[in-house]
Amino acid sequence: MDALKAQRKSLRTAFAVAAKNVRQHLEVLEADGKDLGKLSSLYSQLDDKFSRLEVIQKEISSLLLEDTNTHSEFETDFEAAESYRDSYLELKTKVETSLKSSRGLMKCSSTDNAPKLKLPKFELEKFSGDPKEFLAFWSIFSKIHESDDLTEVDKFQYLYQCMVPESRAARLISIFPITNENYSKAIQQLKARFDREELLVQIYVRDLLSLVMKNVVAGRNSPDLATLYDMLETKLGTY
User: Record's InterPro entries (predicted)?
Assistant: First the structure.
């Protein structure tokens, strides 16, 4: 027991020195916020000494409990051991909080100083209500529609701005007041009215027939095959 107490005395002295160093460095860190590595190193030393101290303390406590004549000594010894444990836990909390706070500030600083990428702006496609224009309109507006940074009301405002004034599309969505709930309804109505494949097929067939009739009126026995091919490829490529 005497040998264990001698070891404990030395470790307690070493622990007190390590604790003092950590406290002093915490004060320095609060002043200038630098040298996190030094604080981590000092804390590791403190943690090592406390771990070794705990091992010896458990052995001494066990021996004191085994002897019925030393129960009163055990209580005094236990209180002294608890004071070291409390001191360790207090410093551990302060160090962890300080390191976390300092690293958070460093991360924010590095983020603020990082070069910011400027994305090119895109112009909103205007939509008049022509079904042939809907695909081009939606390919741009879908970026707004799928954005997580905008509210439904914000998206609805953008939708209004994309409508050609007094057009069929503008009249269609104007029946909906600008609210979060009505935005999805307005989008559904637009798609139901103008994003219809069967309607596009009818329009494209009509355009092709119109081209053929122009050739006939112009006195040509056969249509301009190159123009007809280009038109077919363009229309079919939109699907």
Answer: DUF1759 (IPR005312)
Tokens 């996190």 — which residue? 36
- pTM, to two decimals: 0.39
The verdict on 207 and 221 lying in the same domain is yes
* Structure confidence at residue 119 as a pLDDT band (50, 70, 90): very low
Q: Is 127 exposed, middle or buried (0-12, 13-18, 19+ CB in 10 A)?
A: buried
DSSP letters along 147-214, please? Answer: -SSS-HHHHHHHHHHHBPTTSHHHHHHTTS-S-HHHHHHHHHHHHHHH--HHHHHHHHHHHHHHHHHH
Alpha-carbon separation of residue 83 from 78, 79, 120 (angstroms) = 9, 6, 63
**Residues 23, 71 share a domain:** yes
Answer whether residue 42 is part of any domain: yes
